[in-house]
Design brief:
With about 325 residues, this protein is α+β, with helices and mostly antiparallel strands. It contains 13 helices and 11 strands.
């Protein structure tokens, strides 16, 4: 559950009643709020924290009392995920319960009315990034802000996949669990933005989900060659469409149809192969941890498990055999 990651990742700041003006300043300066009405409660403790990435901000807040917050028109789409409690979310002319997942549109006002026990994780996505990714996916320029249905999604499965990606990002930025590998986080951000576009219902969903045209095997080969040559960099949708000359929709469908897996799964496969090579041809300084991090695997336990699933042995055993230990 996301709730189990909150305290670890966000290291929440806590504000008592006398510190509400400081919290209000934080809310306005960091989140752009124009209104903050808090119900009187001398024993209230407000908690908040956030992680700022390039295109995504992931945050958490809990107020301990009833609250109303207003945001003007922003350049972000905001996904809200309640951990507990209830309230009302209004985006433009749309209203929904705050206890359900919501996706507020960029270019619309956002008003929140929370009850005392509500705790919420929110994920904001830069509108510019959404338009860039959608342009790459469709192969045609997208300049208008997307207008999302506030509480409707293309499927529960896609929403769950998006939440799983957010969990992975949170684990990646938790320094206490593992070192941060910046290019891995950038790649995960890219994947989350793409997943949001397929998950939220917006005016271009029909085009996005429509069956794309077929492409030639040469296109798939170019994508594979690019991934193999750039495996230590974030593999983004824009980069793949630029090198192949086809839309992201076409590339994703054709790659999966021909290979049986996605371009990102291929990138993961390439990285495991490089990890095995480094472990099989070690020098005096080679360690399993160093190899895992060099190949983009910061969760060492998961790396060892997945490595064994792929190659039939733990990475430590590969290294020991190479060192004749």
């Amino acid at each position: 559950m996301i709730s189990s990651l909150v305290e670890s990742v966000f290291r929440c700041s806590e504000f008592c009643a006398s510190e509400i003006p400081q919290f209000q300043h934080l809310l306005k300066s960091k989140f752009g709020a124009t209104r903050f009405d808090l119900s009187p409660n001398p024993g209230v403790k407000l908690r908040t924290g956030f992680v700022e990435l390039q295109d995504i901000r992931v945050g958490f807040w809990a107020f301990g009392t009833s609250v109303r917050i207003a945001f003007p028109t922003t350049e972000k789409a905001v996904l809200g995920l309640a951990l507990q409690g209830n309230g009302v979310v209004t985006s433009g002319a749309q209203t929904s319960s705050a206890s359900s997942p919501t996706l507020a549109s960029p270019g619309r006002s956002l008003n929140l009315e929370y009850r005392p026990n509500l705790e919420k994780v929110f994920v904001s996505f830069q509108s510019k990034a959404l338009k860039q990714k959608l342009t790459a996916l469709l192969g045609t320029p997208v300049s208008r802000d997307l207008e999302f249905k506030l509480a409707e999604f293309t499927s529960h499965e896609r929403l769950n996949d998006l939440i799983d990606l957010i969990k992975i990002i949170l684990r990646q930025v938790d320094r206490r669990n593992s070192p941060i590998v910046p290019w891995v986080i950038r790649e995960l951000e890219d994947a989350a933005v793409v997943q949001l576009l397929f998950t939220g219902l917006h005016q271009l969903t029909g085009q996005l989900l429509r069956k794309p045209p077929e492409t030639s095997p040469n296109v798939i080969a170019r994508a594979e060659q690019f991934i193999e040559a750039n495996w230590k960099q974030p593999i983004t949708m824009e980069a793949l469409t630029e090198v192949t000359g086809v839309s992201g929709r076409t590339l994703l469908r054709s790659f999966t149809k021909v290979r049986g897996y996605s371009p990102m799964a291929f990138a993961r496969k390439v990285r495991f192969e490089h990890a095995r090579r480094l472990l099989s041809e070690p020098n005096a300084n080679t360690t399993v941890t160093g190899v895992a991090l060099a190949c983009g695997f910061s969760n060492l336990g998961r790396f060892a498990e997945d490595y064994r699933n792929v190659f039939g042995e733990l990475p430590s055993k590969t290294l020991k055999k190479a060192l004749n230990l």
